[in-house]
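Figure S7 source data.
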Amino acid sequence: MPVAATDRRHLLALEGLPQGEILTLLEVATSLREAASGRISPLDRLAGRVIGNLFFEDSTRTRHSFSLAAIRLGADTLDLTGRASSVSKGETLLDTARTIEAMGVDALVIRSREAGVPAMIAEAVECSVINAGDGRHEHPTQGLIDLLTLQQRWGDFTDHRIAIVGDIAASRVARSAIHGLTTLGTDVLLVGPSTLVPRTFEQIAAGPGRVTVGHDLDEILPQVDAIMMLRVQFERHSPGAIADDYRARYGLTQARASRLQPNAPILHPGPVNRGLEIDAEVADDPERSVILDQVANGVAVRMAVLSRCLAQR
Ligand code: CP
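Tokens for the predicted phosphoric acid mono(formamide)ester complex:
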């Protein structure tokens, strides 16, 4: 039977997660920031527990911050990547997940190239399953990171508007952000070429926030309280799908960044294509860019998510 969004043993998506659940996760993550920073001794909240990281697609931020989150909660970790596992010999992802579970893990953190793999595994195992990014579907912990980073800047989510710019069609980050932000009352402007920003995205708002699609980045710059630039995901598109004038039309150059409101933070989930979707000087701007704040928040958010899921077992 499909796992309900409200089943706290798992975190598969932000779609369907009630406002109160999201705000509680942000509150717990905030309370864990010092422990997440590593400046104090690890907590013993998950002592004796084992977290299995099953990454069937490459990752730097998500994989290592889940490992650090587990360690800083006192848990042990088991790391497995697609290339260094029996998946390379043809074993199915489900058999791999069941095999790791049989060794006695309490949670599986799963990244996959295909949408729906974490949900499929959650139906088949007894342990907790956390989606660490599945194809073009969702990346719920990245969505929570983006929410926490904005909450630190804005304080509140209502009466705010954010632009999410670029490769929306291929972006699980954008989907999770849209569900989380609109659930909390933020309006979202999706901006990019019509090939990458289909108008159907206007239908996926959870409400009370609204989603609007646009194609003119220069027009919207002064209108938003934050901007999130997305990585162009060449690996999910056929050759030639990204137009040669992409940077000229949709890149966040220094000239464009100067037209944003003075306090509007600049987000990017990483990894960054410097000089394409965002210029290096903008990505590194110490006043405006919150890219490394997002990374730091990743450990606290993942500690909050692991604590929530494993509290149910
Ligand atoms: N933002 C993100 O998911 O980065 P990684 O692919 O490095 O995990």
